[in-house]
Design brief:
Elements: E1 11-12, H1 22-28, H2 38-55, E2 61-65, H3 69-78, E3 86-91, H4 94-105, E4 109-114, H5 123-127, E5 135-139, E6 141-142, E7 147-148, H6 151-157, E8 162-166, H7 178-181, E9 185-187, E10 201-205, H8 207-211, H9 224-227, H10 233-237, H11 249-265, H12 267-287, E11 303-307, H13 314-325, E12 327-328, E13 330-331, E14 340-344, H14 352-366
Parallel strand pairs: 1-12, 3-4, 3-5, 5-8, 8-9
Antiparallel strand pairs: 2-10, 6-7, 9-10, 11-14, 13-14
Helix pairs in contact: 1-11, 2-11, 11-12, 12-14, 13-14
This protein binds pyridoxal-5'-phosphate.
Pfam family, one: Aminotran_5
GO molecular function, one term: alanine-glyoxylate transaminase activity
Protein name: Alanine-glyoxylate transaminase / serine-glyoxylate transaminase / serine-pyruvate transaminase
Length: about 375
């Protein structure tokens, strides 16, 4: 059986989780608080306020859902679409595909707008896919391909539809302005550029979407109407906090610590740090003779996709990185599982030293 001392100290340069900010790790070791303790509720309120800043929103209903990013996706759809509602979904990678599955399970009529993997979405084509959808959904940063899409352009074209945006890999890594861009419902995850362990899904929904929500969604746990009684500013307006579920208090304290650290550095500076580290890595990979996968001009700095050179065993290289250098990188997603690597420099890892380390290790192994 593995004892804690035997757990290897990895450099997590895959598509997530990333190595947490030291402040987030320290937060996990603080004394545990009860989920209705006033001291904890104050931390929760501050966490929601800081989440508003990283989302770029004033939405009162901005909160960390107690589950991973996929639960954020479920919450977004289960609260907005029911039987027969039209959901237009832009698909340019694995997570767009997953959105289609989730929306279909809610009974929605899914209008899927496919794009080539490695390319950004075409906002015009997505907006024209149906005359009157209830929701339009797109992934801001496609982790499966390393591509950034223009959510602001989609927001400008959404018409009467509600815009759902997946910001799991973009939040606190690249520019994100939910309100300015017309995002009505957004969900994210803690384990990438927020630099916290996996386990929470920062979520935001504006009044427009909340008023048009499904009244009794088939998920009790993710019913935003019920959750409002426990977290977020909306709850205080309606007289105090009531028990909904046992919030993972240690995780919220850890997220609180990471957000404080991010905002102390400054969001613009954090975005610039990600941009710089990503550029260093992408330039370095090309100097090694490797070819990048994502379309030029749309590459995410925090998640780089690179083509595995012909004749190279992609899994063997990843294994050697792990065994010799304690470095984790990701395999490609879907059809690209053995032909693409995914290298993340997210949150605490978005630093030049991390970029140089992975470049040196890859150069050594590829010879
Ligand atoms: N959406 C995107 C863009 C992701 O990258 C991920 C996870 O990698 C998810 C959704 C799902 O999040 P989780 O794995 O935390 O459930």
């Amino acid at each position: 059986m593995a004892t804690p001392a035997m757990i290897p100290d990895r450099r997590l340069f895959g598509p997530g989780p990333s190595n947490p900010y030291p402040e987030a790790t320290a937060g996990l070791g603080l004394p545990l608080l009860g989920h209705l303790d006033p001291a904890f509720l104050a931390i929760m309120d501050e966490t929601c306020a800081m989440l508003r800043t990283v989302w770029g929103t004033d939405n009162a209903r901005t909160l960390p859902l107690s589950a991973t990013g996929s639960a954020g996706m479920e919450a977004a759809f289960v609260n907005t679409v029911g039987a027969g509602d039209v959901a237009v979904i832009a698909v340019n990678g694995l997570f767009g595909e997953r959105m289609c599955d989730v929306a279909a399970r809610c009974g929605a009529q899914v209008v899927r707008v496919d794009h080539e993997w490695g390319q950004p979405i075409d906002p015009q084509r997505v907006a024209e896919a149906h005359p009157s959808p209830k929701v339009i959904a797109a992934v801001h940063a496609e982790t499966s391909t390393g591509v950034r899409s223009d959510i602001a352009a989609l927001g400008a074209l959404k018409g009467d539809a509600l815009l759902i945006t997946d910001a799991v890999t973009s939040i606190a890594g690249i520019e994100l302005r939910a309100d300015d861009w017309g995002v009505d419902v957004g969900y994210a995850g803690t384990q990438k550029c927020l630099g916290v362990a996996p386990g929470l899904a920062p979520f935001t929904i504006n009044d427009r979407a909340f008023e048009r929500r499904i009244e009794h969604p088939q998920s009790w746990y993710l019913d935003l109407g019920l959750l409002g009684g426990y977290v977020g500013e909306a709850s205080q307006k309606h007289g105090g906090r009531t028990y909904h579920h046992t919030a993972p208090t240690a995780m919220v304290v850890s997220l609180h610590a990471a957000l404080q650290r991010i905002l102390a550095e400054g969001l613009d500076t954090v975005w610039a740090r990600h941009a710089e580290a990503g550029e260093l890595l992408q330039d370095g990979l090309q100097k090694l003779g490797l070819e990048l996968f994502a379309a030029q001009g749309y590459r995410l700095p925090e998640l780089t996709t690179v083509k595995v050179p012909d004749g190279v065993d992609s899994a063997a290289v990843r294994r050697e990185l792990l065994d010799r250098y304690d470095i984790e990188i990701g395999a490609g997603a879907g059809a690209y599982a053995s032909t693409v690597w995914r290298i993340g420099l997210m949150g605490h890892n978005a630093r030049p030293d991390a970029a140089l380390l992975i470049l040196a290790a890859l150069a050594d192994i590829l010879g």
